Amino acid sequence: MIPSVLPTYNRAPLTFVKGEGAWMIEADGRRFLDVGAGIAVNVLGHANPVLVDALTTQANALWHVSNLYNITQQEALADKLVDATFADTVFFTNSGTEACELAVKMARKYWYEKGQPAKVEIIGFDGAFHGRSSAGIAAAGGEKLTKGFGPLLPGFKHLTWGDVAAVNEAITPETAAVIVEPVQGEGGIRPMDDGDLQELAHICKENDVLLILDEVQCGVGRTGKLFAHEWAGITPDIMMVAKGIGGGFPLGAVLASEEAASGMVAGTHGSTYGGNPLACAVGCAVMDTVATPDFLDDVNRKAGLLRQKLEGLVASYPDLFEEVRGSGLMMGLKCYASNMDIVTAGYDAEIVTVPAADNVVRLLPPLNISDDEISEAVKRLETAAAAVAAKKD
Q1: What is the pLDDT of residues 316-338, one digit of tens each?
Q2: Which domain holds residue 352?
Q3: Strand 252-256 and strand 238-241: pairing?
């Protein structure tokens, strides 16, 4: 008999009932160190008092109004994002996959309004993940996402990850945009080289093609900059944001230049819940904390500490791990052993990690994790590694 919750996840046998900072408490009382952060969502940890205060204060005032009216908290968060980024305007969604839907619509509508309605094709890269909506799976193109869900939304082309030179050859008069994650998350913590990102931005500009960045997972301070593309010094036309921007409350956004958004006028897009007062009040509190030089400097310092300790772990277990990869506090352990064996052994060691493609274990801790918690996390990973190694022997 099918369970009441649709069984689309292979869930671990764990039930967490409370969270405190970088820690989660299981129903049986065990304390797990959380270096998955809800897949890069809980950027300030669990039950962060600043976010709790922002949420409860707003909850006692106003929960929801329609986007038919002005929403003060939405305007405040949009102003913060515009002030801190390339963007001139922001549309709020509830999730990253909704942000992908709008990014695709915005790019195609832009060219339609420019009198070039044939420019609808969007170029992406293999290993990508842009959500599980019709546009999201078509944009990513991987069989794991698309199998059984045809016919797929047309107008997408996929290239080999990192092969920026191939973009020049793939662009046609029908090409509207290129979509890319500066750091692939689900694809196995694969950062695109800064030079490649710069070349990609140049190619788009030279060929009159829009550049869409998917920073749903790698954005909001995760790499030590507010957004990952800042390391390369490039400017996109459209950017997808979600996960960390709400600190655990469902919130997403599409950021865009005035030019790229010029086709999106009244009636072209909407959302019932997107940008509601609760979400945006929390989003404002996240931005006030994360988008500061001191906070981001500390993320980079902690990233160096975590990488150093993980390199030691890899050196200690060369039969289990191949390398450490990633940027900032978006780290991956590329494994020789099964990544799921490491993740599962981690549960026994009371540490939560996240599997990814390319046989990688993702480490996406809260950005305010302490130095001591970083040391404890690697210690628990060592316990997990030892258990996997013992089974191999």
Answers
A1: 999 999 999 999 999 999 999 99
A2: 293-366+383-393
A3: antiparallel
Tokens of residue 31, six digits: 């304390």
Shared-domain flag, residues 96 and 222: yes
Q: What is the tally of structural domains in the chain?
A: 2
Terminal CA-to-CA distance of the chain, rounded, Å? Answer: 40
Find, among 136, 211, 210, 214, the residue nearest to 182 by Cα.
214
**Residues 124, 227: one domain?**
yes
The H or E element containing residue 352 is strand 351-352
Reduced to 3 states, what is the DSSP secondary structure of residue 280?
helix
Q: Is the pLDDT of residue 70 over 80?
A: yes
| Half-sphere exposure in the Cβ direction for 38 (13 Å, CA) | 24
Express each pLDDT in 178-200 by its tens digit.
999 999 999 999 999 999 999 99
Q: Which two tokens stand for residue 198?
A: 């710069």
> Rounded to the nearest 5°, which phi and psi values hold at 17?
-115, -10
Rounded CA separation 361/338 (Å): 9
Same domain? For 222 and 99 the reply is yes
Which pLDDT tens digit goes with each residue over 120-146? Answer: 999 999 999 999 999 999 999 999 999
User: CATH number of the domain that 151 lies in?
Assistant: 3.40.640.10
Do 113 and 242 fall within a single domain?
yes
Q: Is the pLDDT of residue 392 over 90?
A: no
In this structure, the answer to whether residues 235 and 208 fall within a common structural domain is yes
Q: What letter represents residue 29's amino acid?
A: G
My answer on whether 259 and 307 are in the same domain is: no
What is the Cα–Cα distance from 114 to 303, expressed in whole angstroms?
44
Residues 111 and 77 in one domain: yes
156-159 vs 121-125, strand pairing mode: parallel
